[in-house]
Amino acid sequence: MASTELKTPPKNKTDEHLDEIPDEVEMSLFDHLEELRQRIFYALIAVAIGVTGCFIFVKPLVQLLEVPAGDVKFLQLAPGEFFFVSLKVAGYSGILVASPFILYQIIQFVLPGLTRRERRLLGPIVLGSSVLFFVGLAFAYLALIPAALKFFISYGADVVEQLWSIDRYFEFVLLLMFSTGLAFQIPVIQLILGYLGIVSSKQMLSGWRYVVLGAVVLGAVLTPSTDPLTQSLLAGAVLGLYFGGVGMVKLSGR
Questions:
Q1: Which one, of 90, 102, 100, 107, lies nearest residue 41 by Cα?
Q2: DSSP letter (8 states) at residue 163
């Protein structure tokens, strides 16, 4: 009786080409560490320049972030409070301004180890992540912060006069904006997981009950205030982003 051998089909040349690492260069561990040190150093220089530049124009930035508070008066409750608030605003703004250069340094560090297939994915991920982060900042500034402040102002309008600590206000605003920007990265994470084959769109959709619970918890954790309106808005945005990400993973065939 003749034995039959199972032969695996030959790998497509296009797939082999995409799985190659172009311009692969052998580097020792110390070379990698030295390059990492240089990239971090360049990124820190960019942050320092960004923070310094933003500190020079910090007063217009402060006035812009005070707009959602409307007619509320801000107080400096301790000597130097506004100075430290200015440093905080300049720090967040400087990191934001320097973020494109920081991303460039990260990409240049990881790029030599990526295959052609992974490099194709890198551009859309970086672009999508950047756009979603800034959309998250805008959503927090235009929707979440005004809704939260309106709730707090209307709740105690007939009992207390609205005089707020400028330090506490900016701690609330900056934390809410940046946490919302990070929450808006959910679709990017879903696309990466789907592309790597770790989780399919069907599996993402089947666990919707846990997603709803997680969105509520995330809204409560990321929102520095305790009002239900702000938490509900953020939780709703997270759910919309998640199911939008499921749709994009589905469209990609995963």
A1: 102
A2: E
d(CA 211, CA 52): 41
Which residue(s) pair with 163 in the sheet?
A: 73
Q: What angle do CA 47, 85, 176 make, to 5 degrees?
A: 80
Give 51-74 pLDDT, tens digit per residue: 999 999 999 999 999 888 888 888
d(CA 186, CA 192): 10
Please spell the DSSP secondary structure of 43-107, one letter per residue: HHHHHHHHHHHHHHTHHHHHHHHHGGGTT-EEE--STTHHHHHHHHHHHHHHHHHHHHHHHHHHH
φ/ψ of residue 73, rounded to 5: -95, 140
Give the Cα separation of 67 and 144 in Å (integer): 13
pLDDT digits (tens, 9 = 90+) for 186-225: 888 888 888 777 778 788 888 778 888 888 887 777 666 5
Residue 167 has pLDDT above 80, yes or no: yes
